[in-house]
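Thread: quick sanity check before group meeting

JM: Hey all, I'm pulling together slides for Thursday and realized we never actually wrote out the predicted structure for the chain we discussed last week. Dropping the sequence here so it's in one place. If anyone has concerns about the input, flag it before I start.
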Amino acid sequence: MPAPLIIPYFIPHRGCPHQCIFCNQHLITSVSSESCQMPDLEATIEAYLGYKGARSRVELAFFGGNFLGLPQSDILGLLRRVHPYMERGQIHGVRCSTRPDTVTRKHLELVAPLGMTLVELGVQSMDDKVLKRAGRGHTRADTVAAVDLLREKGIDVGVQVMAGLPGDTSATALESCRALAAMKPDLARIYPVLVLAGSRLARWYEKGRYEPLALEQAVAQVADMWRIFSGAGVNVVRMGLQASEMMDDPSQVLAGPWHPAFGHLVYSELMFEKVCGKMDLLLQGDANRSGRVLLCVHPKSVSRLQGNRKENLDKLRRRFPEVKFLVRTSDGVHPDQISVEWD
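JM (edit): ok, ran it. Output follows.
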């Protein structure tokens, strides 16, 4: 079944009680709060409906702000404007992103009857010390309570976590993922921290108080985070921020592991490690054996196998110099897997 068409509608920084240390919503979304006025909602919906194609399900997503932190009149106003599209069967559900501490029984009783089917929680970390240093204003307990309430109301749960927060380590970030994966959310997003112009973190960076992850470090850590979620059956729908002209501007992204295809780098790293693991098994007891090895992947996964600029293939040749690798494709191989055998 094709994935649903998600219509994104950004409400940058709206509903947020304060600005977190890493935040610059204008840059992240390429939309300012002034240009994201209510009258644009219908135009956005109509434009995206033209891209539906063969997809049978369409959902509208309120991203970029703290949806449940909006005034009640604004929440109702937005959802009621979507409702006619739901009555006509053009939109089948609504999702939003929000802070864990804004998920209350009162809010959910307000939005559930108006089509809210999934709420993504801006968790970022499950470590209270890290959350406090990042200026999040919520706690681990808030996230646990939010997930419980959403489950009680039958609303699906998404979680958003970050890698490289001030005071965080690889160990504590992975522990956050384990805690969240144990709650069985329906989806997860992983974002490496970037130093964005205009953020408080930018001032820390300029004063030498914060050192962001290098790209290679971020890819390795996010790959570990992906493994935890995936191993628990949680679908990771995104890794890294959406590319935009602003994000490619070095005067706006001051430092950090920015790459326009960050998720691809992570998937390539995961695929490389799978090949190496299977090669080690294949060569077990005969590490010096030479010959041709057939790497068979799904057609959609060829680029992941090859890696950025085919660096995975280069690394495989260096690691296994006596082996000649051949790449084949097969629809019978799962996109996340690879078959490795002697040719």
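AS: nice. Residues 281-342 form one domain. The longest strand covers residues 116-124.
JM: adding both to the slides.
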